[in-house]
Amino acid sequence: MIRSPNIWDSPDVYEVENLASDRAGLIDLALDAIHPLDGSVLLDVGCGAGFHLPRFAARGAQVVGLEPHMPLVERARARLASAADGGPTASVIAGDAERMPLRDSSVDVAHARWAYFFGAGCEPGLSELAKVLRPGGTAFIVDNDVTRSTFGAWFSRAYPAYDPAGVQRFWDRQGFTTDHLTIEWTFDTREDLDAVARIELPPAVADAVLATHDTLTVDYAVALRWKRF
């Protein structure tokens, strides 16, 4: 299990971040173009509080959320209970990416959005994906592209040791295709933007970038990595 301080420590603020992220739905459209979700069994690895689960179910997928942190498992289950409408089934199970409690060849689409699969070191999770995906199934990894965009510049300033070229070489070796998207954070209030920036960036960097950013939108580069198994 790898701790995720942004969502583990500040789940309510992370919910605001999810609501602000990609309101145009560009990531979902890209997923669906590569592997249509309608009729698929979809595994959301590191589903957190389950933000994406009802939306994937509404797109016609049978959805399973996998999350290691029990307070978030409980939040995700509560979300599904409140969203239940008689549509496609969705559920949440507690478990780690390194040891997925699922049958082999039981999943059509695996989705991980800013969760676990950050480059070298995630090989145990990739081995698990290879087990649980059916032949012809697709794994999607939604990752940051720190080489461009406003948020990419913020991230690079905050974490100068991060090696984007090395990360890209890792995914190339693993046989993943990388598509480059640009989404936006779109916030309703300045307070929301400030709160989200402060759970994603160290305090000094957050102070500096927020002092010079005067809109409620932040352009955000994404590396969509995918592989058909």
Question: How do you describe this structure in short?
Answer:
By secondary structure, the chain is of the alpha/beta class. Helices cover 41% and strands 25% of the residues. It has a seven-stranded mixed beta sheet with strand order 3-2-1-4-5-7-6.
Helix-strand blueprint:
Layout: H1 5-9, H2 11-20, H3 26-34, E1 41-45, H4 53-58, E2 62-67, H5 70-83, E3 90-94, E4 107-113, H6 123-132, E5 133-144, H7 150-158, H8 164-173, E6 177-186, H9 190-200, H10 203-212, E7 217-228
Parallel strand pairs: 1-2, 1-4, 2-3, 4-5
Antiparallel strand pairs: 5-7, 6-7
Helix pairs in contact: 2-9, 9-10
Keywords: Methyltransferase, Transferase
Pfam families: Methyltransf_11
GO molecular function, one term: methyltransferase activity
Identify the CATH class: Alpha Beta
Largest sheet: 7 strands, mixed
- Structural Rg: 17 Å
Stated plainly, the CATH topology is called Rossmann fold
If classified by CATH, what would the architecture be? 3-Layer(aba) Sandwich
Overall 3D form: globular
* Overall residue-averaged pLDDT value: 95
Separate helix tally: 10
- The low-pLDDT segments are none
CATH superfamily: Vaccinia Virus protein VP39
Main structural class: alpha/beta
What is the string of SSEs from the N terminus onward?
A: HHHEHEHEEHEHHEHHE
| Helix percentage | 40-55%
Protein name: Class I SAM-dependent methyltransferase
Keywords: Methyltransferase, Transferase
Pfam family, one: Methyltransf_11
InterPro entries: Methyltransf_11 (IPR013216), Methyltransf_Superfamily (IPR050508), SAM-dependent_MTases_sf (IPR029063)
